[in-house]
Amino acid sequence: VGGEDIDYFVDRVEPTVEEHPACRGCKNYHGQVYGGNLLVCGMHPYGVEGETCPDWESDNSNLK
Fold first, then answer.
1. Whole-model pTM?
2. Which pairs from 8-12 meet CB under 8 Å and 24+ separation?
3. Least packed by Cβ within 10 Å: which of 20, 22, 56, 60?
4. Cβ-Cβ contacts under 8 Å for 37 (sequence gap 6 or more)
């Protein structure tokens, strides 16, 4: 079946400290699941390793 870590019934996955920490608060984060595969963002479809990303941009949507 594959995609053992992805729930096929979840359509959006939020970044956490454990999974994709570099994506927390980034406006580029997509987080949608397609066919059991998580698309993290357009620049890094599988996410980045580590806690920082060179393409991180602040998501100021909570300030509006």
1. 0.75
2. 8/33, 8/36
3. 60
4. 3, 6
And the tokens for 47?
A: 């996410």
Candidates 54, 62, 61; CA nearest to 22 is 54
C-alpha to C-alpha distance for 2 and 11, rounded to whole angstroms: 17
pLDDT in single tens digits along all 64 residues of the chain: 455 566 666 789 999 999 999 999 999 999 999 988 999 999 999 999 988 999 999 998 755 4
Retrieve residue 45's tokens.
């479809």
What's the gap between Cα 17 and its chain centre?
Answer: 12
